[in-house]
Design goal:
single chain, about 800 residues, alpha+beta, eleven-stranded mixed beta sheet, eight-stranded antiparallel beta sheet
């Protein structure tokens, strides 16, 4: 009997194993069937002449055609074969259609996005585009669908999701650009709303102090002194008085809370970060021919975004021989043109421009379902948006709109708010940036920039003659009656927008005397130019200053010299905070708590860099973050009491001015009462409470020891133990062993957010390059993640290790390893 049971069990296990092998074999065959074609020949309907597609060892695609239309069609074919799933996510994310593919987990994301009705706007943009742009997008779209159909099996992600890919339409390329709007700009006016609550709740002088226009770190191209607000006195705001600023939970200053990025369910990493309020940034700069070793300009760029598998960019060289077009750099799958790189006459790169590209309009009600406008009362426009879910069910969403834009909620007084956003206008999106491909000089590039409809970017450009220039590329609204910083009513017609700035009106810098240009998401302009651009939340300028000074130290520089600036991980911004904390850790403090000696030792040996083996850097960064949060939480207690959704993240960019001023002057009236010194009634003659502020500083230091000191040591808490970079494929979690098959290996990397080498666990440099137009063979290029979106591709992960280690790889595509010929039908 026992042998019979064993036999039955054996047969069952054998059948299970056979079924598992069959399933694995079937999946493997399906996986192989979705690989792109790299070699041989294939007909492509619509081509006028033959096109060749060559790939080098890194997978860089060189696409050679006779004309622009054939080039667009072939580019669509290649993009679809390599990256269709990524393209699908991008178009769905901006259209609010992710739930049709991914189901209910993304329903709330779709509802947030659908109020912008980008699918309808995309159709209108296409209708109003030039005949040339329409023809290019039509050719690209047909190439995409041909590339998708040419695969033996659909991209493997659809097998895992049990879905079918939908065909590509010309308007979908417009939706991809809208996805970049959602990545790079605030689609809900959250910063402006937070500032509105701040100024409504706190005294003007305190609000100005906490949210200044900049800090002492500012390093604009247009140098002009910007006065910073003074610290308000006790007659303005005093935490010692009854009530003070501590009502409503100012003690909610969680010791371990930081402003660093964390994962979220959004399938596109960059959109996830933006949705949570994290700053998306980049670096770019240019040296004039007078500063280079060869007399040509040098342009460098690294765009910081959330990191995914595959990478958001696709390395490519696009050649239209009959039109003299030769573009080298990165393309955005879903669109037919080059995003950043070189055309052999000019080179260009971008950083996100944090000017003010939207306004929150306070609506004045005029009876039931009506609001006031300069032309009198108007009815709200209501549309029902239908969101299709993967299971076939439909969610309905009511979208309420005004002449200024969609209603995005209400303020703390219950007043409805509308969003006036560049992205909603036809001027906000067009394909005029393709004109960069024909530009021959830096000045011509600036003229293209003035007509381009993209999310506003700091365009840095250099040409082969050695000239360099900067401007903001993308539409800049022409405001009247207000500066756009705070929500306001536009009902009486005294405030609003009057179109967009012309080329002549736009801020620009051409061939500055120092022969260098830089931007890093901080303010670039000053004076009247800054007033034109507005302030949409500029980054702290520490990174920009470090780049500026690094460039100033170079003489007769080469492209290789740019790599040291790209990889600069010196912690100059935190140096003074490390010194301050060391001063507080004096002998008396060490005697009070001997554990503090471990922190002292880590700070002394910190190395001054965000290096993976530095304990001291991690401690200083965490100390600074915790102290900032505690101080801001205390001073904004009344604001959170007025608005439970208020988030420090929206006002924290320039908080360094207030924080450093406070720890230097140590005012008794702005000190958290929990840390008031025992002799508070006998404060220093200057009104300070130095002992109390020392108490708070040491309390924050002790919170680090409480959390990180284990077995009498801090040694395991290096920066690298935290800064482990996560670069995952959106569907790796859906299959057993998916992480090993699809994700990039986890690895600690140097760098942080306040230095040129920007690197955090979920975001960093999505590419790095330096190139002199006309000397592309001397340039270098890095890109993380994967050139191909397919795990069986020979290019999957190629170049990722070089990006991690900062090893230069050629900017110019290498010797062809594969050649595909596309022939007319």
């Amino acid at each position: 009997m026992g042998k019979k049971i064993l036999k039955i069990v054996g047969i069952g296990l054998g059948l299970a194993l056979a079924l598992l092998l069959l399933a694995g074999g079937w999946f493997y065959l399906h996986l192989r069937g979705s690989l792109p074609q790299l070699d041989g020949e294939r007909t492509l309907d619509g081509l006028s002449q033959q096109v060749t597609v060559q790939r080098d060892e890194l997978g860089t695609a060189t696409i050679r055609a006779s004309n622009r239309l054939d080039l667009a069609r072939a580019t669509g074919f290649v993009h679809a074969q390599e990256r269709f799933f990524q393209m699908d996510l991008l178009r769905r994310s901006s259209a609010g259609e992710l739930s049709g593919l991914l189901g209910s987990p993304t329903l709330q994301i779709d509802k947030r996005i659908r109020i912008h009705q980008f699918r309808d706007r995309a159709k209108r943009v296409l209708e109003q585009s030039s005949a040339q742009a329409q023809a290019l997008l039509e050719a690209y779209s047909k190439g995409v669908n041909a590339g998708l159909q040419a695969l033996d099996n659909p991209p493997f992600e659809y097998l895992l999701l049990r879905a079918k890919p939908a065909p590509w339409r010309p308007e979908d390329s417009t939706l991809v650009v809208y996805a970049m709007y959602l990545t790079l700009q605030d689609d809900r006016g959250r910063r402006e709303r937070a500032l509105g609550t701040l100024y409504d709740t706190l005294p003007l002088e305190l609000a100005d102090f906490l949210a200044p226009p900049g800090t002492s770190w500012d390093a604009p191209l247009q140098v002009e002194e910007m006065p910073l607000p003074a610290m308000p006195g006790p007659e303005v705001f005093d935490l010692r008085t009854e009530g003070g600023g501590l009502e409503g939970g100012a003690h909610r200053a969680a010791a371990s809370h930081t402003l660093d990025a964390a994962p979220c369910p959004q399938p596109i990493a960059s959109l996830c970060l933006t949705a949570q309020g994290y700053e998306i940034g980049s670096n770019n700069w240019a040296l004039a021919g007078s500063r280079s070793s060869h007399g040509g300009s040098i342009v460098a760029n690294d765009m910081h975004l959330g990191l995914d598998v595959p990478n958001i960019w696709f390395r490519v060289r696009l050649v239209a021989e009959d039109e003299g077009l030769d573009l080298l750099g990165v393309s955005l799958p879903g669109t037919p043109d080059l995003i950043a790189g070189s055309n052999t006459r000019i080179a260009w790169g971008y950083t996100n421009a944090y000017g003010d590209w939207s306004d929150v309009v306070i609506l004045e009600e005029a009876g039931e379902d009506r609001y006031l406008t300069p032309e009198g009362p108007r009815p709200y426009r209501t549309v029902i948006e239908r969101i299709l879910l993967k299971d076939g069910s439909v969610e309905e969403l009511e979208v309420v709109s005004t002449i200024w834009g969609p209603v995005i909620g209400s303020d703390r007084q219950g007043r409805r708010l509308a969003l006036r956003w560049v992205a909603h206008d036809v001027e906000g999106l067009n394909f005029n940036m393709m004109g960069l491909g024909q530009a021959r000089t830096a000045e011509q590039a600036l003229r293209v920039a003035a007509q381009a409809g993209i999310p506003a970017q700091n365009l840095v450009v250099g040409d082969s003659r050695g000239h360099i220039a900067w401007t903001v590329m993308g539409p800049v609204p022409r405001r009247y009656g207000h500066d756009g910083r705070l929500p306001s009513s536009w009902a009486d017609g005294s405030r609003g927008w009057d179109g967009y700035l012309s080329y002549q009106e736009r801020p620009k810098v051409i061939d500055p005397p120092r022969g260098q240009i830089w931007s890093a998401n901080a303010r670039v302009a000053s004076g009247q130019d800054l007033a034109l651009l507005g302030d949409g939340g500029y980054a702290n300028a520490a990174r920009a200053r470090q780049i500026r000074d690094g460039l100033a130290a170079l003489d007769q520089a080469s492209e290789t010299d740019m790599l040291a600036v790209h990889l600069d991980d010196r912690a100059l911004y935190l140096q003074r905070w490390r010194d301050l904390l060391l001063e507080e850790l004096d002998e008396e403090a060490l005697q009070q708590d001997p554990r503090r000696r471990h922190l002292q030792e880590a700070l002394r040996d910190w190395g001054g860099r965000a290096s993976v083996d530095s304990v001291g850097y991690r401690m200083v960064r965490e100390f600074h973050s915790r102290l900032r949060n505690q101080v801001l939480e205390t001073l904004t207690g009344p604001v959170r009491q007025a608005d439970r959704d208020f988030n420090l993240r929206w006002i924290a960019n320039q908080s360094e001015h207030a924080l450093w001023t406070l720890v230097q002057q140590r005012p008794a009236h702005l000190l958290d009462p929990r840390h008031r010194s025992a002799a508070a009634s006998q404060e220093d003659s200057d009104g300070s409470d130095r002992a109390g502020w020392s108490k708070q500083v040491l309390a924050v230091a002790d919170s680090l020891l409480d959390e990180y000191l284990e077995d009498g040591t801090l040694d395991d808490n290096t920066w690298g133990a935290f800064n482990i970079v996560v670069v995952d494929h959106p569907v790796s979690r859906f299959i057993p062993g998916g992480a090993a098959l699809l994700d990039m290996p986890r690895r600690p990397l140097p760098g942080a957010t306040d230095m040129p080498r920007v690197q955090m666990p979920f975001f960093g440099a999505s590419e790095r390059f330096a190139v002199s137009p006309g000397r592309e063979e001397e340039g270098y290029f890095h890109m993380p993640s994967a050139q191909s979106g397919h795990p069986l591709s020979p290019f999957y992960g190629n170049g990722h290790e070089a990006w991690e280690e900062g090893k230069p790889t050629p900017f110019l595509s290498g010797v062809a390893q594969h050649t595909l010929v596309l022939r007319p039908n």
